[in-house]
Amino acid sequence: MVQTETFMPIILGTDNNAYGIARSLHEAFHIKPTCFGRGNLIMTRDSKILNVIVKHFTNDEEFVNALNETGKELKKTYQHLIIIAASDQYAEQVIRNKSQLEGLFDVPFIDQELLTSLTHKDKFYKLAEQTGLPIPGTQLITADNYHNFISKFDFPIALKPANTTEYLGLHFDGKKKAFILDDADELSSTVDKIYQAGYSDTMILQEFIPGDDSHMRTLNAYVDHNGQVRMMVLGHPVLEDVTPNLIGNYVAIVNDYNEKLYKQIKNFLETIKFHGFVNFDLKYDARDEEFKAFDVNVRPGRSSYFTTASGYNIFAEVVNDLALNKPFTETVAAKADHLWLGVPKKLAVKYIENDKIKAKVKKLIQQKKYSYTLYNSLDKSIKRNWRLYKYYHQYWQRYQTYFTNKENL
To answer: Is the peptide bond before 156 cis (omega within 30 degrees of 0)?
Structure first.
């Protein structure tokens, strides 16, 4: 039996992903993890399985001071304080201030130099090419060439920022996390808006890989302090969020297995000497039968509870590594048959476009092999249940408003 005084996970964030991470650790070790953030969102509010600490900070200095203040108090009780970031912003904030946190906390994160190579998409694509990780056909748009830029790919094409941190602070009409553009005029007007809004870094233009959401994959991994990949879990997203500012987030995932892809990811992570949690977004290209990597995130995926729900608790691995000192034995490459949902199950069945996938999702639902991050039999109350019902039910209106059929693109 693990003595809970040995460690306390500090989860940065109070959103859906933070709750899923906390729930995973609660299930693995029967503890109440700490969620630390600027506010208590509905996902973690009134929860019985975690504790929330709210601090007010607006910059790195205030963040470090607030986190260290919390850490010093918790250190009176726990030997190991393990930081886990639930969002890109928190992950990058930890990495920027890693040297000011390492004495008090266990900080399973890469350094700033590698972060820059991974989070700036133009640099990531170069790194992927060097290590044999397939990527889509790509062109770079800059502040210098956007006025007369010409795509070498057939339309439709995909457009997204290389620097997501800078892009996040922009405000302009029609802003999206990523764009699918149908012609040269739409490309020209979109990049004009982006650069005129103050964006100064590179935009990524990519060939649009044919197919609907069922061609997407998401992979979560944990790499220990010795650079060993302890666990990889592959998910097959079958439906994406259609809300304009949330496009790219998944709302239905079925577990998947692909030995070749697992080997490619493992080689990539070991080659670049990664450490910590990582998440890849990929899409299957039927033209050459390869999975093409779009993004890599230095934190667990936003739907990362699907790993635990399917029987592979990836968050237990960071505790085994840093607090319990369990040695690496082998890389676990997950293989399971489970459905994770971030929307009502009837909505998922209605909007999934691929008939084969729809049939599989129906079967998993009939077999009761499905789960939600926030619906938790160990974490119920009248207030919480009502909030969660409203949270999930709002997706009906979103899909009625924004859904577009993409299967013929």
So the answer is: yes
Q: How distant, in Å, are the alpha carbons of 25, 27, 39, 86, 122 from that of 373?
A: 13, 12, 20, 14, 33
CA–CA gap between residue 81 and residue 63 (Å, rounded): 16
Phi, psi of 317 (to 5 degrees): -65, -35
pLDDT of 254 > 60? The answer is: yes
Q: What is the pLDDT of residue 3?
A: 53
Q: What is the pLDDT of residues 26-64, one digit of tens each?
A: 999 999 999 999 999 999 999 999 999 999 999 999 999
Query: Which range is least confidently modeled, 1-5, 66-70, 217-221?
Result: 1-5
Asked if residue 23 lies in contact with residue 49, where contact means CB atoms within 8 angstroms, the answer is yes
Tell me the Cα Rg of the chain. 21
pLDDT tens readout for residues 172-193: 999 998 899 999 999 999 999 9
Packed helices 395-402 and 382-393: angle between N→C axes, nearest 10 degrees? 10
Average pLDDT rounded to a whole number, residues 158-169: 90
User: Across residues 345-355, what is the average pLDDT?
Assistant: 94
What is the Cα–Cα distance from 292 to 299, expressed in whole angstroms?
20
Lowest mean per-residue pLDDT among 24-28, 322-326, 399-403: 399-403
Provide the whole-model pTM. 0.90
Q: Is the pLDDT of residue 290 over 60?
A: yes
Q: Which residues pair with 239 in a beta bridge?
A: 252
CA angle 45, 51, 56 (to 5 degrees): 75
Residues 184, 124 contacting (CB under 8 angstroms): no
What's the start-to-end Cα distance of the chain, in Å? 54
Q: Are strands 7-12 and 34-37 parallel, antiparallel or unpaired?
A: parallel
Opening angle at CA 171, ends 165 and 173, nearest 5: 130
Q: How many degrees, rounded to 5, is the angle at CA 182 between CA 288 and CA 295?
A: 50
